[in-house]
Amino acid sequence: MTFGYPADVTAFSALIIDADEAASSSIRSALAPFGFELTATHDDSEAMSLAKTATPDIIFLRVELPHVSGFSVCNKLRRADETKYIPLVLYASDVSAEIFDQHRKLKTHADDYLVLPFRHGELVAAVRGLMQLPEPGRVQTTLATRADQRRTVRAFEPDRDRAAVQALDIGFETAREFIVHRSRDRLELVAVPLATPCSKRFPLDLDADPWTDGYVAIDEGSVCGFIATSLGSWSSRLTIHHLYVARAHRRRGMGRALVEHVIAAGRAAGAVTAWAETSNRNYPGVQAYERLGFVLCGFDLSLYSGTPAEGEFAVYLARDLREPERGRS
Hints:
This protein is α/β, with parallel strands linked by helices. The protein folds into 2 domains: 12-128, Response regulator (Rossmann fold, 3-Layer(aba) Sandwich), CATH 3.40.50.2300; 151-320, 3-Layer(aba) Sandwich (Aminopeptidase), CATH 3.40.630.30. Helix content is 25%, strand content 32%. It has helices spanning 21-31, 44-54, 70-79, 97-104, 120-128, 158-166, 254-268, 283-291; strands at residues 12-17, 36-41, 58-62, 88-92, 112-115, 151-155, 172-183, 186-200, 213-219, 222-231, 237-245, 273-279, 295-300, 314-320. Strands 6-9-10-11-12-14-13 form a 7-stranded mixed sheet, with helices on both faces. Strands 2-1-3-4-5 form a 5-stranded parallel sheet, sandwiched between helices. The protein has a two-stranded antiparallel sheet with strand order 7-8. Helix 1 (21-31) crosses helix 5. It is globular, with a radius of gyration of 20 Å.
């Protein structure tokens, strides 16, 4: 059975946790051109229930709530399996930058932080750094499916699929990137806003890495995604060499379907971890991996030296395959 949003229903959903109607209205106004359906509450218990059952695409959480601190609610959201990978923006009118900086260092930190009053452009930039947004006024309907037979994952067939994979639109936009803070005996990876949002497209060279197993995602007969992996014989590590989803098919479950497919195959073959590398500029990609249960595990400041990606650095993520299934459903 297939079900989805009718054409006149919005493609994205957001939860606002705030008792201040003026602040909630400002968020609504800023996101209206992008087709968001927004739900608001100021009650922390109701907020947790809504977040767990409705699984919004993003959560906006006010620190100053009537009966509880938003920091406490953030901690609960980050510890609950159903909500820990939902992008979360924490905002406040009476919290110093130093307090926010301290909160960023916690394991249960938010994905971004804003100080009221904020301009619409600030909010939209923060959201763009966490999820793929359409151009204002050109909202595309996103289908939510449980068993859509038009969408499948199958093995990559070089003669049949190579041209289609190389033609995928794999560009992205980001308003944030990772940088490294250095001290005498410490290196710290920190996400920071870009002065100007940027667009990027990674080169897609299928022969660049020694992958062994490839799969494509198919939607209505067309290739819309690709993943390639290999399994280390000594480390039992499942390396993801390529993972791409065409721009028009993002936020429709294609990336999750590809990743979960190779993880299931990897587990069956004895893999104990899954591992991926991306650029520090690919902040949206890192967020997507984290929603799939991956965690940041390292970086390499010199890997791209002498390459077309000179000036960027490699960021590594891993997922323990011995743990229970994680990530948003």
